[in-house]
Amino acid sequence: MNCLICENSLVVKGSNTENNDVLFCFNCNLYSINSRKQSKLKNMKSRYRGDFWLESNYNVQELLNSDFSSKKGWDYLVAQESMFEYYKQFLKNKNKILEIGVGTGIHLLAFDKMGYDVTGIEPDPINAELINKKLVHGTCINGFFEDIKFKNKFDIIFFYHVVEHLENPKNILEMCKKLLNPNGLIIIAVPDCENQFTLTESIKNPYHLWHFSKQSLENLSKTLNYSIIKIDSFSRLPKNKRRFYKILKKLKLNLVSNFLSPFYPLTLTTNQNGYEIRLILKNNI
Fold this sequence. Notes:
The protein is an alpha/beta fold. The protein has one domain (42-283): Vaccinia Virus protein VP39 (Rossmann fold), CATH 3.40.50.150. 37% of the residues lie in helices and 26% in strands. It has helices at 35-38, 44-56, 60-65, 71-87, 106-113, 125-134, 169-177, 196-204, 214-223, 239-250, 254-260; strands at 11-15, 21-25, 30-33, 96-100, 117-122, 139-142, 154-160, 180-191, 210-211, 226-236, 266-269, 276-283. The strands form two sheets. Strands 6-5-4-7-8-12-10-11 form an eight-stranded mixed β-sheet, with helices on both faces.
């Protein structure tokens, strides 16, 4: 087996919870599931049409009806706010946004409320229907990105914890090039598998086919001729600080909380203790 990015030979580094080989590229620092066995997984696409959210134990309708104000919704809400803080400076003169893998709809709905022209793609038909009922200006298409023929191009293509689920992220990111307007950007967040704990948790997740490090994302981006505008790793804040900033936010003291910890509940890190990698790419036309 060869690496998706550099085509070097891969070595077996154990197995995941479904007894599929976990492979490793020393050149790219990339872990992946044996691609030959991916086709033997339980119909990958069908898993995202219901099983994924049933197994996640999250009631998406309840989250949407509460506008993510419920206890479980809080995690999604603060994650969206943290992510927005990271990329908001790059939204100037951008209007048309495509989100691939909408999930609960938290990011797409936030863009919609801010007045952006949004399009989302979500495999789960129930999620897509529920999200469409909440959207004011945009639309959420039920389906898979590679199956959809787009008539328009976009200023931003957004992936939030989606790329690690894709059967072939290299092909998907290559396809995105044709859909970007001049100066368009791709915004990505994935688990930071440079951290051994995050890597172990990612490998345990049967839906994760790829386990990225900053190096592997940089190599993938360069292979596809994207410019890296920004790439950073974020770790979780210590529990006592997360609790403190949560109290500030509950008290509507957002200005104080944002000033002290703009990426709550995460914080920038240069150590190998990351929870999430965030990446912004620009197409080299």
